[in-house]
Amino acid sequence: MNEEKRDWKQVFLERLENLTSGEKAALKRCIGLQLKDSRNEAIAAFYKTIPFNEIKMGREFEEKLFLLATLRAFHRYPEKKEISFGTTLRLLKEAQGSKSFDKKFYALIDSKISPDDGELAYRMAQIIRMSDSHGIKIFWRKLLDDLIVWGSETKTVQRNWARSYFVAGEDLIKKGEKKYE
Domain check: are 91 and 119 in the same one? Predict the structure, then answer.
């Protein structure tokens, strides 16, 4: 399909998938880092994925896209569609069997992202490493959408994740959908 007919986010995600193994490895090595602290190979790989004719990027927006790129490069499993990241976090908590995971969740939803503050990148890197080790799949398109609006005054993303983590996650698990595939 022609790139002009697709949404820029889909183009970005497809370009991430189509990077060489070396380019993905460069991004993977930078998980949890900000763009300014990353290796040149990762920066070059990242900029190859951006459909510049479709979007205008500021520094914070770049950080959000770079964060997603490094997370995706690290995570080995194919995408799981139609699942919120809050539900993914709930599945991860269940897989770990840890009640203390709630503290990680609270720290994550309190995290900030800006060109000068890499807290969200650090917290997300922890979560993605854990989800990868448990084979828990992620809906990357939804996570991208969430990261783009992260930091809004209404905290819509954080509220949605909390709802899915504490309420909707319970419903999924009760229905027997605790599968990580």
Answer: yes
